[in-house]
Amino acid sequence: MGKYVLAATVAAAIGYWPHAKAATVTNGVYRYLITPIGWLQRLIVTGTAALSLFASVIGLAAPANAQTFSWSYSGTGFYGTGTDTGSGTLTIGGLSPTCGSPPSCSYLNPPYTTTPGSTITSITGTWNGFTITGLVNPGSFDANNNVLYLPPNGVLLDASANGQPGGLAFFVHNYTGNNVPTPTDVVVQIYFNTNLMQYAANTGNTSFGCCSLSTAGTFTVAPGVYGTDYLAFSGEGVVLDNPTTAACQSIGINFNSNFSVIYRFAANPAAIADALMFVSGNSSTFRIVSTQSPGFSLNGASTFNSNTQNRFGDIPTPLNGTSNITIMAGNNTAVSLGTGNIKFVNGQITNFFNKSGCDITNFHGAAVAIPQ
Length: 372
What we know:
The chain is mostly beta strands. It folds into two domains: 157 residues, no CATH class; 143 residues, Beta Barrel (Porin). 7% of the residues lie in helices and 46% in strands. Strands 4-5-6-7-9-10-11-12 form an eight-stranded antiparallel barrel. It has an eight-stranded antiparallel barrel with strand order 13-14-15-16-17-18-19-20. A hairpin with a 2-residue loop joins strand 1 and strand 2.
């Protein structure tokens, strides 16, 4: 495929950004005309290769595409005294394996789940006012599998079985309260409790296990709405560090390295978080999602979760990091749902492309809004 990848048109074709549209499809090539902004130009990408790339990026094992949902939980204690509230966003990718009946997965109980769920690939938000910093790897805490089951399934998360809750598990940083007396990094696990017939949440950690508190209550998810909760922009960017760090150079990121970019602007941080994806010339990808409460914005200083995939389809263990990027409209005003073009100025990003020590300090770029 060519030097440039137009992420927006590919995303439109596979539904990565809902409602994004490619302008034309001719001879298997997706074309999207970008309004001229400085050095931006029309970019062309071969459809088959690009679809393969983005399918691998977001885990398209079946028709389900990557989508972002807002989530919320509220419950009261049934083991220990206290209450739990949490909210934020979660992103799903490809379908998880079918468990069926009898289940081939250990912690799913038909008839609660009857069709495959989707793998949760990232999460943001707060838990009792404390920042959620990322997912716990599947199977690392009481058989969590981090799978979301959408209708027609009867439950959204794993139903407990075999003495194990399963469900969704994530880290919360410097948590106190609810029987945790000093600031501690804890794990929260949300699942469907088949004894109580309610969603439940356990708070614990890998040191003291489960649980300082278990609550039961409600868990809900809702999709973000394009043009209301968020807006997507597609364009190009360049690294202007001269020279880049040795770690960056070791993976081929140097002065004047170019990337295609897709930026998701979160107009409603209660429903969705800012995200930024980079696509390199060799089709490797790097995606960051803001975890900076309460605004979950990548404009300015932010912490982030990341996902990386190289051109061979390998997905390394993610390194989270920090960024400080000035993101503004082309006319130097704040980005809004009415913005037509944006620019990235003086971008600083640590652990770029999941490489420890590859810290970018001078990323610049421009992008245009993807129409509904």
